[in-house]
Design brief:
single chain, 11 helices, about 70% helix
Length: about 200
Amino acid sequence: MIETLVDPTHLVVILAAYLMGSIPFGLLFTKWAGKGNIRTIGSGNIGATNVLRTGSKLLAFLTLFFDALKGYAAVKLGIYFQVEPFAAGAVLLGHIFPVWLKFHGGKGVAPYLGILLAMSVPLGAQALLGWLSFLILFGYSSLAAILTCILIAFTCWIWSYGEMFVYTTSLMGILIIFRHKDNISRLLKGTEPKVGLGRKK
């Protein structure tokens, strides 16, 4: 691990993964489409769920797709240079704490799906299907994300994916759930808006 962190090539790859994660696609797409600043709409988050509150399903889909793609691309790059778990962590941190937005970014769900698909297609497919199932069942994107993180960490442990998978998915899941702390509070109070609901500030 120490050798990885001091190797110049590995450091460049990890930095590149962070910078990929820092690209705020939700903010860029809504601005280019003339929808205003996504940070002043709904929850103020730059993720696909909040982009949906602009009324554009296309923009929300594009945000989801490209946020997932950057997670996928960063991990594939990490696999090539044998720094997969570091690249996965870096791209997720880049999305959540982007340097371009003063370290105030998204909650990491879409990049997480892309990361999992790059690490293991069956695991990524399970995460995607799980998230969609929880979303359809409960109607809350935040709750779907939280339950999916728990499901994936549990799956990696039960099906013996290996220590790297268990530690990586567990740490990412904990970070994503922590980022949803305000959503958890609203869920408990019954004030959390369902997908597609919410007003502009």
